[in-house]
Design brief:
- The chain is mainly β and 638 residues long.
- The strands form 10 sheets. Strands 8, 9, 10, 11, 12, 16 and 17 form a 7-stranded mixed beta sheet that branches. Strands 34, 35, 36, 38 and 41 form a 5-stranded mixed beta sheet that branches. A 5-stranded mixed beta sheet has the order 37-43-42-39-40.
- The longest helix is centred in the N-terminal third of the chain and has 11 residues, at 29-39.
- Residues 535, 565, 600, 602-604, 608, 611 line the site of dinuclear copper ion.
Length: 638
C-alpha cells in the first residue's frame, strides 16, 4: 500500500503552502447571520451543553458553554488558583503535595453502560504522572492520585472503561524501573520500559487506587481508547517509537512505515492478577505479557500514529496516521478472529503481532496529519488534521464495493480550521450514545486572528455544526493554554449543588453560631474557629505569639447561593474563598510580629469592605495573658 509519505514531503508541502483544505468558511451576510443565530445564547438564556476542556500546562480544567463557547468557570486541578484559594487551604495544599503545576491532557467523564453518568470527570497530568477526580456535584477536585509508581509520562490517559471500573493509562516515556533506578540511556532497549496501568475506581465513592500494571517494551505510547460492545473489556493505544530510539526522536523514531499499536485485554489482566500471575514492583502487581498470554497484542499501524479512537458501536477502531495521510480502520471482530486463529505475523518480546491484513478494514485517505477521530453515532467520523489544518468528515464502514475500491469516495467534507487542529470533540463520541450535534476543534495556533495581545498568543476553539451533510463552522473563541482533549456533557444530565447544605458538612471544625466560635492557644498552637456571614467574621480578632502555629477554620454559614466569602491574610501569602456551607482551614507558622489584617476577598455585600479583622502576633513577653496561655482574646460577634 503506497500511502506513506516521507517527512521531507510533508515539510515541502508546508513550505509550498500546498496543505490547506482550500475551503473557507462562509462570509456571506446571510451565512454570517445564520451562524450568529446558531451559536447565540441571549442574555438570560443558558447553554445546552457543558464543554470541559483541559488546560494543558496551566494545570487546570476550563468549563465553557456550548453553543456560546463562553468560558464560565475554571476548575483548578494541578496548580494553585488564588481565585478560589485552591492550593492555599490545608485540604487542597495536601492534594497538590510538592507540585505546583501539572500538564492536563485528556478529561474523561465517568460512564455507566457506555453512557455518561454525570458523576465524575477524570484528568491526567502528563508531567507528574497523576490522575485527578473532579466531582460534578460541586465541580471541585476531590482526589489526586500519584505520582503513579512505575509510570513515567502519564499521557496515554485517562481512558474510562464502560462502567468506570478502571481508568486506563499508558506511558509516553520509558525509564529504568522501578523509578529511582539509574541506567544509561544508551542501554535504552535493554534497561528501559513502558507501562500500561489500570487505575481502579471505587464504584460508590470514585476513590482511585493503582490496581495493576502491564510491563511493555520501551515504546512511546500515545493516545488510546477503551472498547465497548464487541470490544468490551479491551483497550487500545498507538505508539510513535517502535524503533525504540532514545535520542533525536524526530529522526530516529520516524524511520518505520508502521508502528506497533497495543491491544490490551484489561479483563484478562485483572484476572491474571487475581490468579496470582503478577509480580510486585514498587507495591504494584505487574504483569509480564511474555509470561501471561492473552493480555497484550500488537498490531502494525502506519505511521507514527497519534489518536486511536473506538467508535460508538465498539466494532471499529480508528488510528490517525499523523505521518501517513490516512486513518486506519481496524475491525475488532477481525481482531478477535485473528487472536483466536493465531493469525500472527510474528512476535515482539513474546507478544504476538497480529497480521495487519487480517484485521484492517481500510485506510481512508483523509489528508495530511490526521490526529484524532470523533464519531456522531450516525455512521460518520470526524478527523482533526494537524498539517492540513482542517476537520475531515468521512463515512465509517460498512462501505460499498465502489467505496472499498476507492476510499477517497468515503471522504465527504472538509472544513478549514485556524490553525493546526490538535484534538476535536463531538459530545458523547466515546460513549455508545453520541449527541452528534456539535463538534469543537481545538486549534494549536491562532496566528493573529484575534486582537493583538503580544507574543503569548492564545489557543483557539472553533464550533462546527455537524447536523447537516456539510459541516458548518459557526463560532470561534480563544482560550488559555492549552486545550488538548475535551468532553461535552448535556447540561440537563446533571444537577450540581448550588450550596453545601449545612447537614452535609461533616467537618469536625465547622462552627455555625457565635457561641461555638473560639480562639484557643495550647502550647505553641493557636486554633481559631470562625464563622463568616455577610458582613463579618466572628471572632474578628485573633491573638497569638511569635513562633506559634496558627490554625484557622472558617465556616461560611450562609445557605444562600452565590454568597461566597474570602479570607485573605495580609503579608502571609494566604487567600481562599469559602462557599456557602463550606469550612476551610488555614495552617501557617507565625514568623513575623505585628498586626495583620485579614479581610474578605470575595465581594459579597454592600458592607463587603467592612468584612475584616486583625491577627495580632505578639513578641515574646508581650501581649495579653490570653495570648500567651489559656483562651485567647476574641472579639466581634455582637
Ligand atoms: Cu493529541 Cu496530549 Cu491528546 Cu494534545 S495529545 S493534541
Ligand atoms: Cu464577605 Cu466579601
Amino acid at each position: 500500500m503506497k500511502t506513506t509519505i516521507t517527512l521531507n514531503a510533508i515539510a515541502l508541502a508546508i513550505a509550498l503552502g500546498l496543505t490547506s483544505c482550500g475551503k473557507q468558511t462562509g462570509t456571506s451576510q446571510a451565512e454570517r447571520t445564520a451562524n450568529a443565530v446558531a451559536s447565540y445564547v441571549a442574555p438570560g438564556e443558558k447553554d445546552e451543553y457543558y464543554l470541559f476542556y483541559s488546560g494543558g500546562h496551566s494545570g487546570q480544567v476550563f468549563v465553557a458553554g456550548i453553543p456560546s463557547l463562553r468560558h464560565i468557570s475554571t476548575i483548578p486541578v494541578f496548580a494553585p488558583y488564588p481565585g478560589t484559594g485552591y492550593g492555599f487551604d490545608e485540604e487542597s495544599k495536601k492534594m497538590l503535595g510538592d507540585f505546583t503545576w501539572g500538564d492536563v491532557h485528556h478529561p474523561a467523564l465517568s460512564q455507566t453502560n457506555s453512557k455518561y453518568d454525570g458523576r465524575w470527570l477524570f484528568v491526567n497530568d502528563v508531567a507528574n504522572n497523576r490522575i485527578a477526580r473532579i466531582d460534578l456535584r460541586d465541580f471541585k477536585t476531590h482526589q489526586i492520585l500519584g505520582p503513579i509508581p512505575n509510570s513515567m509520562g502519564n499521557h496515554g490517559s485517562s481512558f474510562v472503561t464502560e462502567n468506570t471500573e478502571y481508568i486506563l493509562c499508558a506511558t509516553r516515556f520509558s525509564v529504568p524501573l522501578p523509578k529511582g533506578r539509574v541506567a544509561d540511556p544508551k542501554d535504552y532497549e535493554k534497561e528501559f520500559n513502558g507501562m500500561v496501568s489500570g487505575i481502579k475506581v471505587d464504584p460508590q465513592t470514585g476513590e482511585m487506587k493503582v490496581g495493576w500494571q502491564i510491563l511493555t517494551p520501551p515504546f512511546d505510547w500515545d493516545l488510546g481508547s477503551t472498547g465497548k460492545g464487541p470490544s468490551s473489556g479491551w483497550a487500545f493505544w498507538t505508539n510513535y517509537n517502535t524503533a525504540m530510539a532514545h535520542d533525536v526522536l524526530e529522526v530516529n523514531a520516524t524511520q518505520k512505515d508502521r508502528d506497533l499499536c497495543a491491544v490490551v485485554n484489561w479483563r484478562a489482566a485483572e484476572k491474571a492478577v487475581a490468579d496470582g500471575k503478577a509480580q510486585i514492583m514498587d507495591g504494584v502487581p505487574i504483569i509480564d505479557p511474555a509470561k501471561v498470554p492473552r493480555v497484550l497484542y500488537f498490531i502494525p499501524i502506519g505511521k507514527s500514529p497519534h489518536g486511536m479512537d473506538t467508535d460508538p458501536t465498539g466494532k471499529w477502531i480508528v488510528a490517525g496516521g499523523k505521518l501517513q495521510p490516512a486513518t486506519t480502520v481496524l475491525n475488532f471482530e477481525k481482531v478477535q478472529a485473528a487472536i483466536n486463529n493465531k493469525t500472527f505475523e510474528g512476535e515482539f518480546r513474546g507478544v504476538p503481532i497480529l497480521k495487519y491484513e487480517a484485521v484492517v478494514e481500510g485506510e481512508v485517505p483523509v489528508g495530511l496529519g490526521p490526529l484524532h477521530t470523533q464519531f456522531d453515532g450516525r455512521g460518520f467520523a470526524y478527523t482533526s488534521m494537524f498539517i492540513d489544518s482542517c476537520i475531515v468528515k468521512w463515512k465509517m464502514p460498512p462501505w460499498s464495493d465502489e467505496e472499498k475500491r476507492d476510499l477517497t469516495k468515503a471522504v465527504l467534507d472538509k472544513v478549514q480550521t485556524h490553525f493546526s487542529t490538535g484534538h476535536l470533540v463531538v459530545g458523547g463520541s466515546d460513549t455508545a450514545h453520541p449527541y452528534g450535534k456539535w463538534c469543537v476543534a481545538m486549534n494549536k495556533l491562532s496566528a493573529g486572528r484575534h486582537i493583538n495581545v503580544g507574543p503569548a498568543e492564545p489557543e483557539s476553539s472553533q464550533l462546527l455544526d455537524i447536523t447537516g451533510n456539510k459541516m458548518k463552522m459557526v463560532a470561534e473563541a480563544y482560550t488559555e493554554p492549552e486545550p488538548h482533549f475535551a468532553q461535552i456533557l448535556k447540561v440537563s444530565e446533571i444537577q450540581p449543588n448550588e450550596i453545601y447544605p449545612k447537614d452535609e458538612n461533616k467537618n469536625p471544625n465547622a462552627v455555625w453560631d457565635k457561641d461555638s466560635t473560639s480562639v484557643i492557644r495550647t502550647g505553641n498552637q493557636v486554633v481559631a474557629k470562625l464563622t463568616a456571614i455577610r458582613s463579618r467574621y466572628t471572632p474578628d480578632r485573633i491573638d497569638a505569639q511569635l513562633g506559634d502555629d496558627l490554625i484557622v477554620h472558617v465556616t461560611n454559614i450562609e445557605q444562600t447561593r452565590d454568597m461566597i466569602h474570602g479570607f485573605g491574610l495580609a503579608e502571609h501569602n494566604v487567600n481562599f474563598t469559602i462557599e456557602p456551607g463550606e469550612t476551610k482551614t488555614l495552617n501557617i507558622k507565625l514568623t513575623k510580629p505585628g498586626v495583620f489584617p485579614f479581610y474578605c476577598t470575595n465581594f459579597c455585600s454592600a458592607l463587603h469592605q467592612e468584612m475584616q479583622g486583625y491577627l495580632v502576633v505578639w513578641k515574646p513577653g508581650e501581649g495579653p495573658s490570653g495570648a500567651s496561655g489559656g483562651a485567647g482574646a476574641t472579639g466581634g460577634g455582637k
